[in-house]
Design a protein that fits this description.
The chain is of the alpha+beta class. Helices cover 38% and strands 14% of the residues.
C-alpha cells in the first residue's frame, strides 16, 4: 500500500472520501519478507486517522510459479 510514502496523502484523502460517503471500506495489506514493518505501522496509523473501526486484513503474499511471472 505505502511502498511509496509520497502517496500517503492520496491514500488518506481517498479513504476519507469513501468513509465520508458512508461506503463500506476495508484495508488489505499484502505482507512479504521484503515488507518494511514501518510501512505496516504507517498504514494502520493512516487508517486509524480516518476511522478506528475500519477493518484491516493482513494477507501473506502468494508466491507465483515461474510460468506466471512477468519476464
Amino acid at each position: 500500500m505505502l511502498s511509496d510514502r509520497s502517496l500517503c496523502p492520496e491514500h488518506k484523502q481517498f479513504s476519507q472520501l469513501c468513509f465520508d460517503a458512508n461506503l463500506e471500506i476495508f484495508v488489505k495489506i499484502i505482507v512479504s519478507q521484503r515488507r518494511d514493518p514501518g510501512e505496516l505501522v504507517l498504514s494502520f496509523k493512516l487508517i486509524a486517522s480516518v476511522a478506528e473501526n475500519v477493518p484491516k486484513f493482513l494477507q501473506l503474499v502468494t508466491p507465483l510459479a515461474d510460468s506466471e511471472k512477468f519476464s
